[in-house]
Write a structure and sequence with these properties.
By secondary structure, this protein is of the alpha+beta class. It folds into two domains: 5-149, Jelly Rolls, CATH 2.60.120; 153-253, Orthogonal Bundle (Arc Repressor Mutant, subunit A). Helix content is 40%, strand content 21%. Helix 7 crosses helix 8 (214-226). Residues 18-118 form the Cyclic nucleotide-binding domain.
């Protein structure tokens, strides 16, 4: 299937390469089912118990997985980054409703496909199905490895790992292909030189991601500040390049990277 100009003019090389490979043997008649859509931050793409109306191919951005049935409060348990296919777990398991809620953490770009059309096509396309199986197996391997590591971590190490992950994402530049401009790293705030990274998440969000209380996050943030791993500016967590290097060294020393 040949992608239309509405795709080729808006996507970068990596995004186009994935779509062209995934839809390599897809008939041209399937093209009208593909809709490219941009979502701002804090938008709910799907909610627990919703019907499985669409699947999403996340081409840019990050999503947050939320378990709403675990307790009286939301449990934010997973972060999904591009490039990934979202929403077909339920189709493959023949479930009639969504298992989890997914929201955008930042501006995100997706291809939306009607669920029925997607399932009817991929069942007949061995090449696309093989790619999808590879992606699912890779997800399971990464998650199993992460679960084994996290099982032995204390909350301090979990916070250090979370902050390192956020700063690592900040090193990735925004896609400025359309404007032709050179953009600063995401999350970076220039405070003199070198760059200093501002952690966007609130203490409540960090606590939800770690599975602990806000009081614990506050105590650990104060501890990491005393140890020189972070700076605190009006309560906001910031990490300099030197502090980022210190985090990386400790995590590697503890074999958490």
């Amino acid at each position: 299937m040949k992608l239309s100009d509405s795709f080729t003019k808006k996507l970068n090389q990596e995004q186009l390469a994935f779509l062209q490979d995934f839809f390599l043997h897809c008939p041209d008649s399937f093209l009208p089912n593909l809709m490219l859509k941009s979502f701002p931050a804090n938008v709910t793409l799907m909610s627990t118990d919703d019907s499985c109306s669409h699947i999403y191919i996340l081409l840019k951005g990050r999503l947050q997985g939320i378990e709403e049935r675990a307790s009286d409060t939301e449990f934010r348990f997973a972060e999904i980054t591009a490039i990934e296919i979202i929403g077909d777990f339920e189709l493959f398991s023949q479930a009639s409703a969504r298992f989890i809620t997914l929201t955008t953490l930042e501006r995100s770009l997706c291809v939306m496909i009607p669920a029925k059309a997607y399932l009817a096509w991929i069942k007949e396309d061995a090449h696309a199905l093989f790619i999808r199986i590879q992606m699912l197996v890779t997800q399971l391997m990464i998650q199993s490895r992460s679960d084994r590591k996290n099982f032995f971590l204390d909350n301090r190490a979990r916070l250090l790992q979370l902050l390192y992950h956020e700063c690592s994402l900040a090193h990735l530049p925004e896609d400025c292909r359309a404007s032709g401009k050179v953009c600063p790293p995401r999350g970076a705030m220039q405070s003199g030189t070198p760059f200093e990274y501002k952690i966007r998440d609130t203490r409540n969000t960090i606590a939800a991601r770690m599975g602990c209380s806000v009081r614990t996050v506050n105590r650990l943030a104060a501890q990491l500040y005393d140890e020189g791993y972070i700076s605190l500016v009006r309560g906001k967590i910031r990490v300099s390049q030197t502090q980022f290097a210190l985090m990386e060294a400790e995590l590697r020393n503890c074999m958490m990277l």
